[in-house]
Backbone:
């Protein structure tokens, strides 16, 4: 009998060692043996029906998990009730459901790949989690992990309760960065993000050491949603002073610069990151975007080859290579690589949006729309996908739809005049002139582009307010040649012949319009001159 | 016949005339009873009264007096029959009969013929005038006729009514089943065969009244739902059980319907467990499974059924429940295995083909399912599940007329179950015939007032009649009845969705959203629910949220006309109404951005926003058409949302 307990002891010592050495199959074999060693307890009346102790069960389940046998892991943990076992079991259940879902869906964006294949385990997981939280009120790291899992599942179902659970999780156990990331995904607008940060700051949990985690979180949110805020820079400086060699901070700074459209700074930062950690492929796709926008072909090509040599089958690598092909104008090839990236990881956010852009290039609006939609499923905060959707629908002459998408894009990037310009254009197409005027005026508040002034002028003319129209025409005299012609016409009509003559004359001198416009200007000049005399 | 009514041999069972017990002379002489009452005319050798009915394996050991030649031959014949040596039994039995000419010997010889499947010979043997007076011979003769399919002749032999019904009821003393009861039961079967279900029911009831041990008749009554639920309970209460029959009473109690008197059932089950330690007996577990099934606790029911099947692989009584649960819970693979095992081992059983039919129904092969349900009901025309399954196949293909006529047959055959009427109501509901639907649902409700599915349908009726308060009442009732339902069951799903719709129409949007979100939380993806949520948001004026939700709906069902129509309206609302984006962003610090926006357009933007304008001239194509489809579907908000009618 004692040989049994000796063996058990020996196995329990050996198992962590094997697991830490990543010898998963050996560990699995040993754990199975450990659970098969008969129980020595003499008072066990029914030796066959007695369950092995919970710890051994968990050890066995862990080895199954490491070998990616998720269903078996779930089964092995059935009798265990602790928070740790429950988390492992439900997490394995979730992963098993995800794996089955991926397997059952067809190739990316094919007819069968409707995105509707559900993870069949979801509702069972939610029910179990609810039951667990009902009976178990203790706060521990594992309970926090259960809240995290709850949040993840609810987020997948687009349920509003996700945020609450994720907040609970980060409060209970702040060092789970994935929970912070998912919490970030629930915050779709700058307002919501600010409210969330403020709420967490007021909590006592973040007064001490865990406050750093909250700061990291703040940085990510600011970088994504408010890249222009000076607060972001200050905070990044502060954190970099504390943890100078933390690549994460540098990446955030680079992403911030990228989002703030300061590409040169972003490039420099990415170069620094690569110098310190040359084989790091994370965030490489963003770097390549920067190079793409800056049209640095050679560097891009070099980096694409480099990434492919490190690991050809990383989603990031595929995105990089796709970018390279896109720059060369090989859109079909680019799409193929984006597909590959998505086959490797369907949650690869950037790939969906970029693939949408490629489809736009190929004038395949339907595919583009589908790709943008998937991008938004993965990340609602992606303003480019919203804008892309707007464009695609505009191509299809569906301005009513386009309007909504532009509005969403504008709510994410309120200081980007292109958003407002697009919205105004939609209003104009929908004959909503009052709204169009309102929107152009807003755009004008951001950037005094003569194009906006000219647009406003024509719109005021359309609604019959010629006086306001002429005011705006005056404003954009330098930018828009046609303003002169319009003013000439306007002055002629209301008897300001001198002004009309001058405008028409100047228009003729500039001589940039169409032949018939030039002809008309000459006519007006003649007419005005006649009247002056 | 008149002479027979005087003869009390109908109170005996075949034990009395068995050669084994008839040799126990001491028993007979030890307890003399009123000899005239037990005198059986037409038989020289029957020694009728016995205090014990147990077969003694060694009857010879008890025999004090030396046996006669005939007695020896009878024992030989009997043992040969028991050991299935039919040739021997036939050979010897023939000799005994020739020796004695006793009707009882004729009876036993006929039994041997019957057991070896020679019904015609058995019948011919018993035809003789000299055996007419023997009750046992008449019973067996009639039984042979039913086996030969000569139902009318069998009824002639038995008589259309019980000829002994006027006789003074005497408790059977030999411990077997009274022949009178067996004859009543057989009469019932003949009537059932002739589709005279009311008379059949009366015959079965009489059989059980005459002798509670006639379980055959009792099972026929209960399994085929021949009585209304209340009637069943009253019938059981009217039966006379002696004190030593308590076990039987408890067992019978657990067999009755589970629609009412649950207290009595629980009590009986408890006592069977505690006093008789029958807790894990298959039939007691079966009754538990029945209860769970009626309460729609399919998962629990399935577990009980599996426990029974582990012990008894082909327990035919539990199989219908097992199959239904698997169908309900989507256990296609298990259905496949069970259907195959049954087809291999029991190819002539009606349950086998029910299993095959249920399997095909589960995988959506409706014509095949129909074929096998029909096969099952041909083998056993009184098999309720097969009929209902058969009707389901029509319903599944939208053949309302045929479904209705089949459900109606089922309702006629099985007045004691609420399901056929419920399904009839559902069919009429689908055909928009609210009056008839309500009538059938009311009938169903009078049988069973606790089925969440039924309550849900009642709610749906009132919803369609725009009687929202009543609809809300019934849905809440259904919710209460479904309290223990698995949250992923379809019934639970429908009730919650329906409550959401009711509150939507009542204008209680928060409550409505609560229920819809409940459905989504566990029900996964359903485009209709998303559309409904979208509509609620639209009504609440949250246009952005409405548009988002409607997009979710269209992501699941891209061609859903309701969702695309609602989306179009939401977008129009968005255009006409107060501009949410403008309002929202205007709350941000307004003009400070001048500085930060100095260089936004200097670099080429990665988002390639310029492309839109160059492509604007492209034609409107398919997608636009798709999205515009279904414009005409709705002027009235309320008409377009399809309520869940399971």
Residues:
């Amino acid at each position: 009998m004692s040989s049994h307990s000796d063996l058990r002891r020996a196995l329990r010592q050996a198992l962590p060692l094997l697991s830490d050495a990543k010898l998963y199959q050996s560990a699995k074999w040993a754990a199975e043996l450990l659970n098969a060693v008969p129980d020595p307890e003499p008072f066990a009346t029914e030796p066959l029906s007695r369950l092995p102790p919970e710890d051994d069960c968990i050890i066995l389940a862990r080895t199954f998990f490491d070998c990616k046998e998720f269903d078996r892991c779930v089964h092995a943990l059935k009798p265990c009730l602790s928070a740790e076992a429950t988390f492992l079991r439900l997490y394995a259940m979730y992963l098993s459901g995800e794996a089955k879902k991926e397997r059952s869906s067809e190739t990316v964006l094919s007819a069968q790949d409707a995105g509707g294949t559900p993870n069949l385990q979801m509702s069972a997981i939610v029910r179990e989690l609810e039951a667990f939280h009902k009976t178990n009120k203790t706060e521990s790291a594992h309970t926090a992990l259960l809240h995290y899992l709850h949040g993840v599942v609810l987020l997948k179902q687009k349920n509003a309760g996700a945020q609450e659970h994720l907040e609970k999780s980060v409060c209970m156990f702040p060092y789970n960065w994935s929970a912070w990331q998912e919490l970030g995904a629930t915050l779709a607008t700058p307002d919501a993000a600010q409210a969330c940060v403020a709420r967490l700051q007021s909590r006592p949990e973040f007064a001490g050491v865990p406050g750093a985690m909250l700061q990291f979180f703040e940085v990510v949110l600011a970088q994504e949603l408010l890249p222009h805020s000076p607060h972001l820079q200050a905070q990044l400086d502060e954190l970099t002073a504390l943890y100078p060699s933390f690549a994460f901070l540098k990446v955030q700074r680079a992403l911030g610069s990228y989002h703030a459209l300061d590409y040169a700074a972003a490039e420099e930062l990415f170069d620094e990151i690569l110098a310190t950690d040359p084989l790091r492929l994370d965030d490489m796709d963003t770097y390549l975007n920067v190079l793409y926008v800056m049209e640095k072909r050679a560097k891009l090509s070099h980096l694409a080859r480099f990434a492919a040599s490190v690991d050809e089958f990383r989603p990031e690598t595929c995105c990089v290579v796709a970018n390279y092909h896109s720059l060369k104008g090989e859109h079909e090839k680019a799409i193929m690589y984006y597909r590959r990236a998505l086959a490797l990881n369907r949650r690869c956010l950037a790939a969906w949006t970029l693939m949408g852009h490629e489809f736009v290039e190929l004038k395949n609006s339907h595919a583009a729309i589908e790709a943008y939609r998937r991008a938004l499923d993965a990340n609602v905060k992606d303003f480019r996908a919203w804008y892309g959707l707007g464009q695609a629908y505009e191509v299809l002459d569906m301005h009513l739809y386009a309007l909504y998408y532009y509005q969403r894009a504008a709510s994410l990037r309120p200081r980007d005049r292109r958003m407002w310009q697009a919205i105004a254009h939609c209003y104009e197409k929908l004959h909503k002139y009052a709204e169009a005027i309102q929107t152009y005026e807003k755009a004008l508040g951001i950037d005094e582009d003569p194009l906006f002034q000219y647009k406003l002028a024509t719109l005021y003319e359309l609604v019959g307010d010629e006086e306001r129209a002429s005011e705006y025409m005056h404003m954009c005299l330098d930018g828009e040649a046609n303003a002169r012609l319009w003013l000439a016409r306007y002055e002629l009509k209301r008897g300001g012949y001198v002004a009309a003559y001058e405008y028409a004359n100047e228009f003729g001198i500039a001589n940039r319009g169409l032949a018939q416009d030039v002809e008309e200007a000459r006519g007006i000049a003649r007419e005005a001159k006649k009247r002056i005399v | 016949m008149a002479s027979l009514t005087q003869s009390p041999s109908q109170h005996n069972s075949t034990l009395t005339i068995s050669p084994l017990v008839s040799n126990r002379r001491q028993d007979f002489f030890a307890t003399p009873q009123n000899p005239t009452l037990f005198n059986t005319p037409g038989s020289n050798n029957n020694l009728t009264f016995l205090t014990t009915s147990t077969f003694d394996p060694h009857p010879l050991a008890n025999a004090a007096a030396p046996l006669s030649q005939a007695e020896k031959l009878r024992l030989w014949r009997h043992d040969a029959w028991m050991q299935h040596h039919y040739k021997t039994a036939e050979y010897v039995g023939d000799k005994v009969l020739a020796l004695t000419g006793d009707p009882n010997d004729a009876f036993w010889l006929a039994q041997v013929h019957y057991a070896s499947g020679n019904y015609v010979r058995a019948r011919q043997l018993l035809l003789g005038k000299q055996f007419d007076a023997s009750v046992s011979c008449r019973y067996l003769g009639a039984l042979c006729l039913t086996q030969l399919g000569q139902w009318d002749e069998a009824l002639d032999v038995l008589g259309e009514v019980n000829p002994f019904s006027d006789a003074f009821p005497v408790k059977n003393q030999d411990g077997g089943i009274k022949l009178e009861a067996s004859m009543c039961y057989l009469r019932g079967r003949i009537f059932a065969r002739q589709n005279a279900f009311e008379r059949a029911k009366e015959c079965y009831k009489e059989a059980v009244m005459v002798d509670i041990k006639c379980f055959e008749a009792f099972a026929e009554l209960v399994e085929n739902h021949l009585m209304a639920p209340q009637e069943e309970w009253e019938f059981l209460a009217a039966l006379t059980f002696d004190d030593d029959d308590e076990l039987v009473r408890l067992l019978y109690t657990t067999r009755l319907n589970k629609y009412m008197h649950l207290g009595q059932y629980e009590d009986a089950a408890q006592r069977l467990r505690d006093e008789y330690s029958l807790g894990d007996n298959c039939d007691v577990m079966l009754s538990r499974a029945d209860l769970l099934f009626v309460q729609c606790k399919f998962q629990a029911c399935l577990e009980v059924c599996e426990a029974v099947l582990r012990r008894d692989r082909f327990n035919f009584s539990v199989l219908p429940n097992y199959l239904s649960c698997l169908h309900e819970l989507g256990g296609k693979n298990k259905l496949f295995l069970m259907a195959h095992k049954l087809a291999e081992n029991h190819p002539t059983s009606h349950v086998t083909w029910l299993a095959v039919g249920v399997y095909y129904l589960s995988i959506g092969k409706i014509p095949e399912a129909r074929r096998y349900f029909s096969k099952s009901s041909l083998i056993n025309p009184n098999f309720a599940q097969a009929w209902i399954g058969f009707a389901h196949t029509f319903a599944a293909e939208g053949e309302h007329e045929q479904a209705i006529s089949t459900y109606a047959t089922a309702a006629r055959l099985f007045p004691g179950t609420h399901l056929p009427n419920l399904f009839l109501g559902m069919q009429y509901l689908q055909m928009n015939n609210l009056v008839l639907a309500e009538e059938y649902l009311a009938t169903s409700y009078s049988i069973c007032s606790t089925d969440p599915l039924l309550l849900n349908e009642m709610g749906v009726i009132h919803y369609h009649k725009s009687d929202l308060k009543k609809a809300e009442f019934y849905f809440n009732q259904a919710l209460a009845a479904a309290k223990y339902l698995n949250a992923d069951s379809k019934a639970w799903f429908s009730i919650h969705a329906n409550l959401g719709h009711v509150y939507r129409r009542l204008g209680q949007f928060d409550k409505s959203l609560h229920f819809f979100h409940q459905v989504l939380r566990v029900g996964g993806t359903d485009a209709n629910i998303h559309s409904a949520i979208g509509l609620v948001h639209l009504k609440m004026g949250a246009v952005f949220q409405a548009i988002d939700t409607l997009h979710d709906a269209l992501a699941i069902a891209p061609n859903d006309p309701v969702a695309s129509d609602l989306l179009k309206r939401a977008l129009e609302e968005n255009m006409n109404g107060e501009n949410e984006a403008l309002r929202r962003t205007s709350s941000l610090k307004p003009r400070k951005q001048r500085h930060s926006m100095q260089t936004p357009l200097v670099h080429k933007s990665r988002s390639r926003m310029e492309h839109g304008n160059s492509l604007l001239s492209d034609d409107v194509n398919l997608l636009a058409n798709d999205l515009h489809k279904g414009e005409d579907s709705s002027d009235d908000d309320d008409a377009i949302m399809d309520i869940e009618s399971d």
Summary: DSSP finds 37 helices and no strands in chain B. The CA atoms of residues 204 and 221 of chain B lie 7 Å apart. The longest helix of chain B spans residues 490-505.
